[in-house]
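Take a minute with the sequence and fold tokens given here and flag any structure token that looks odd. Thanks in advance.
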Amino acid sequence: MRLVMMGTGSFAEPTFEALLAGPHQVVGLFTQPDRPTGKERGSTRQARRGMKELALDKQVPVWQPETINTTESASVLSALEPDLLVVAAYGQILSRDVLATARLGGINVHASLLPKYRGAAPIAWAIYHGETRTGVSIIRMSTALDAGDILAQEAVEIGPDETAGELEARLGPLGARLAFDVIHHLAQGPVQGAKQNKTQATKAPKLTKEHGLLDWNRTAEQVCNQIRAMQPWPTAYSFLHRPNHDPLRLLAFRARASPGKGPIQRSMSPGAVETINQKFIIQTGQGAVELLELQPAGKRRQTAAEFLRGHPLPPGSRFAGEPGA
């Protein structure tokens, strides 16, 4: 079959590599336009080789339109005469006209157990909401967001300390294997899919920097889940307020929940900070969080112990959402 790949970022790369190494002809790659490194977002980040580099190495033509749903893009696709569009973390919903350019339409490699977590950031939102398992679904594409029939699906467990970036690195190869199998069956004839139960659908919207802001009124477990979910982007953060000091923005990379009923939990309000046996402890709405690894604004990433040596925490220190809060 003649295949066109559409995708951007580390999650999409294993699928593209599998197609390039497979028996079918990859006649083109559509990927997002080149962005400055600081503007790469979520699953579209290029933490590995990069889709464009993979294509150029194999002499596969590359197109990088700002939007795929134009007459020009549809004309390019039609000229390629694809049998199938293979989409993974492309970041755009394909129009009916674009899907119609391929004889068999398109399939999408999606990093969740659909119908849960439809949208741009399924890995991060699964961790944020405390899921213990997720997976990859291969769906037949429609014009609705991640709503097509399921052609293949496989679940994996989420590690208790696993970050979104770490989970993405495991799900990418799984998606490649499932997509490769589905394409093999499609080449032999029609494949029957399973309808999604739309009443069970949940959303996984695109991440913004604001999603990293920690809310200390949530439980200790929820705060730790948010810290894991926001890595590698946008990264969880809060502002440390110390008496007689300017507020300090801190990025949070590693933490663990301490849900017991120690003195800090009984006597202090959410966001209150205390050092106990040289540990960096923050009160939440239920339980406490021990911050293990962080990064002050403009400084290097460091352990909590390293930070505390240079930043004593006087009584009254606390975390809050914004400077002046």
